[in-house]
Fold this protein.
Amino acid sequence: MTVLELAQSIGVRVLLPGRPGGGEINRIYAGDRMSDLLEQADAETLLVTHLANPHLAQVAELMDVPGICLVRGVDPEPGLLAAAAACGTALLLSPDGLRETASRLERSLKGRRGP
Amino acid sequence: MITANYPITGGDYSASGSATRALKEQLKKLGIEPEILRRIMIASYEAEMNVVIHARRGNLWARLSQGRIDIEVVDEGPGIPDIELAMKAGYSTASEQARRLGFGAGMGLPNIRKASDLFEIDSQVGRGTRVRAAIQLQKLSAVAAPGNSLAVREGRCRSCLACLSACPTRALRLRGGRPIILQHLCIDCTACLAACRHGALALRQDTEEQPAFSVPQGGALVVLPLPLLNGFPQAGPAEVLGALAEMGFREARLSEEWEAALALAALRYAREEAERGPVVSPVCPAAVNLIEAHFPSLLPQLAPFLSPLEAARDAYSLHPLAMVPACPSQATVLHPGSLPGRLQLLSPARLAEALRPLTARGAPARPEGQGRPEPNRAAVEGVLRVTGARHVLRVLEKAEAGALQGIELIEPYLCEQGCWGSPLFPEDPFLSRYRASLTDGGWALSPGAEPARALRRVRPFLPRSGVRLDEDMLAAMRKLARIDELVRALPGRDCGLCGAPTCASLAEDIVTGRAPETGCPIQEHPR
């Protein structure tokens, strides 16, 4: 399932579409500590986080992460949009909290993959 | 070796991550597996962010060599007063600013350790911290025999068969009037060199046309074995060091410095970390080869360190360096091809040849300086130092059988009398040792140089695959049965006339296609 398909499936806002064609997502990881995000990230993971600073885009770029979903409708800090655009990372924005957003994404991903 | 250096500015969050990003750009060109690249990125980014968060400035060094990457981050900062505490997950002294950005959760150092095959950290309060992480670039399985540094000198062999019976692993055959080295069995020791009175076997560097030796402009460091300093009848260590300085070497250090560092580290490992004993020190690469080829059950007992010369090479990885291996196995592990232009291997014979005229006419002695390592280390309880292939084989057999009670550490040397006894040295070991015992350290040896340190190895010790009779176990069992049958039919004289050292070796050669069925001259022409 691509980042954009996943975004559409739970109705979150797409701030940046990321790479053309969108990256394939097979896993959701939610967390607020940069070290955890770094350690769990890979080329098939969508990161979900309260953080909204440009360092997120750095982690995404280094770990080839296809997309990041911000939560609670937070405004991305200056620099995050530009940094994410520069490295082709999709940026999504959910109005819900971390846990709820991650659960909905996970359900959608599992629903598409089947039990 | 490829080396890259990226500066890091402490406190500059806007530029943070740029060193790791630049490193990734370089690594992408190498086609490294994604999972391994991921681990490199974790180690590098965490180490870089530690400098940004805690230090004034730092440098990230990345070195690629021999199938691994070494990432070293050195900073100028406050240092870490308690490394054990800093390594605990969740412990952090990061600022509020760092925490607001999601950093400073106390997971950086544990993450680096988890992502690396080797992790080292040292720190001095008030000065700074050095973190080293090394990651193997390929997944590992059993390894084929590495190349060796033994070579045959054409036209010298007199077919005396002395080398056949001397080889502890029966790796030599005599075919067409010259020795043949079976690479998969050869452990790169010096037994055949010592046995051959005709010079038919030699260190590869001594058999090939070598470019004229030259010390690079600006000088170079030379690492040489202590027996060479005491190997000249008319010149003591001070005069030999003076001659080296005259040749252009700005600094000289002894292999024995790293040997002593390894001895301490291996004993500490045996007493504090090892799960199984006795631990075997990797001090002699030929002994390590022997274990990889013939004692695979002892592999977990090898202390996970580099050999002394490898550690010396890595300590000076950015400097022009000349190294004098004491034996073929040391020459092989140094891989000069991986450091073109920076590392030169000098055989003891070549160095002795270059030094002889200088020492004979009396080069000025180096002034007095710091001392030398003890040539005759006193016995340490629990440490068994064993030299000579025959004795090493016997001790390893006992270790395998669990019959070495009270021994914590084995230091095996394939040469008789350890490295002193290498046949590559021009002087008899008893004479050079005697001369060494007369000197009292009154000669200079790189005053102020960093003390030698033992280095943990990244690549694990692995069994050699080439020793198996067949990849397919059933086929191997059939071959083994056929060997047994042939051995019973052969005369059992182990005379060597067939060109194999023993009847059992000939039987194996027949079964593996290295010798014809009619290989035994006694059977073919009985008297």
About this structure: The interface with chain A takes residues 13, 16-17, 20-21, 24, 34, 38, 41-42, 45-46, 49, 101-103, 105, 107-108, 111, 114-115 of chain B (CB under 8 Å). Confidence is low (pLDDT under 50) at residues 368-376 of chain B.
